[in-house]
Amino acid sequence: MKLVSYKTEDREHLGVFINGHIYNLNSCDKLIPDNMNAFLLGGEVLMERAKKVDSQIKDNSLVAKEEIFYELLAPVPHPTSCRDGYAFRQHVAAARRNRKVDMIPQFDEYPIFYFTNHNAIQGTGEIECMPDHFEKLDFELELAIVIGKKGRNIKAAEADEYIAGYMVMNDMSARTLQMEEMLLNLGPAKGKDFSTVIGPWLVTPDELEQYRVAPKEGHVGNAYNLKMTCRVNGIEVSKGNAADMDWTFAEIIERCAYGVDILPGDVIGSGTVGTGCFLELNGTGLLNDPNYKAQWLQPGDVVEMEITGLGALTNNITKADTDFSILGLKKK
Questions:
Q1: What pLDDT is stored for residue 315 in this prediction?
Q2: Is 224 helix (H, G, I), strand (E, B) or coil?
Q3: Which of 128, 236, 311, 326 is the most buried (most CB within 10 A)?
Q4: Does the pLDDT at position 246 exceed 90?
Q5: Within 10 Å of residue 197's Cβ, how many Cβ atoms?
Q6: ω before 188 within 30° of 0 (cis)?
Q7: pTM (two decimals)
Q8: Where are the alpha helices (DSSP H) in the chain?
Q9: Is pLDDT at 211 greater than 90 in this prediction?
């Protein structure tokens, strides 16, 4: 099942995406709330009701009215929190190699994550950036999960049961801001807090069962053979696979939930897949060729991320009409 959030006029709604069409769940079953947050709070009971509606529409046993005029939103427009992990060893190792530092051994000891701005979640469509964001503006190709039920002190062996679904994620990054603030060992903050993109829909785990593979040796939890690509202005710049995650989402959840509640509507990203951002690609290019021309996102660029089974997430990059700069406020 593919769950979507969308807007008609000034109201947000919850629907299912079937064969290119959106159908409102509440109009098919009045016990299903008409927004994603309330739906996720209902847990497995409401999820099963939604799956029943989805199945009935697909087999034509339920006649549902298709939505025509709508704006597609992030699947979870108002997450309770947003964390981002660091699950792909290839990306971490390449980024450190490009900075001429050794691979950090702690990567293989435990999964880590940081909190980002859950109020800056966006879906498909326009991403408006400030002038300082364009000082090395970057994409990050990731996948993400949404938590479907409350839990605390969850062991990795049971953690996959807490996942309501999967999405494509683009962790937008302003690298100049990020690199400056992380010199003080408290980042990332302003380099990340302006936009995190998820979508285009929330895919329930049963749809990915055909892609399930064994996790990396020594790890616990579900892994999936999902091709990941990113295109900028129609040109493929990045490709990887979700099966290359060294730390599974189950293991990341185990760490997230240690001594604290995870909640329905929490979003957790995987971290960047290997080759999944310009920072890594530029670093590798310059390491191999001093004349390599670095690339960063520019106003007018179109970024399209696609993951097998999860769909394609497309965004247009625009520049705010202002000259306000926080980089210009630095004390000399």
A1: 98
A2: strand
A3: 311
A4: yes
A5: 28
A6: yes
A7: 0.97
A8: 25-28, 36-41, 43-58, 89-98, 156-159, 175-182, 249-256, 278-288
A9: yes
CA atoms within 13 A on the CB side of 194: 23
What phi-psi label fits residue 275: left (phi over 0), alpha (psi between -120 and 50 degrees) or beta? Answer: left
pLDDT tens-digit profile of 295-330?
999 999 999 999 999 999 999 999 999 999 999 999
CB 122 within 8 A of CB 305: no
Which pLDDT does position 332 carry in this prediction? 82
Amino acid identity of 4? Answer: V
Task: Quote the pLDDT of residue 261.
Answer: 98
pLDDT for 236 equals 98
Helix (H, G, I), strand (E, B) or coil at 154: coil
Parallel/antiparallel/unpaired status of strands 227-232 and 235-241: antiparallel
Dig out the tokens for 317 from the structure: 């990059």
Distance CA 46, CA 99 (A): 48
Chain-centre distance for alpha carbon 119: 14
Measured distance CA(203)–CA(200) in Å, rounded: 9
Token duo for residue 250: 């189950």
Q: How many helices (DSSP H) and strands (DSSP E) are in the chain?
A: 8, 20
| Location of structure tokens 């190792």 | 93
> Which tokens belong to 283?
């670093």
Structure confidence at residue 187 (pLDDT): 77
Residue 168 has a CB neighbour count (10 Å cut-off) of: 28
Q: CA 127, 279, 223, 160: dihedral to nearest 10 degrees?
A: -50
Among 295, 302, 296, 294, smallest CA distance to 318 is for 302
pLDDT at 186 (0 to 100):
87
Q: What is the band of 197 on the pLDDT scale with cuts at 50, 70, 90?
A: very high
Total number of residues shown for the chain:
332
> Whose CA is closest to 168, among 272, 279, 275?
272
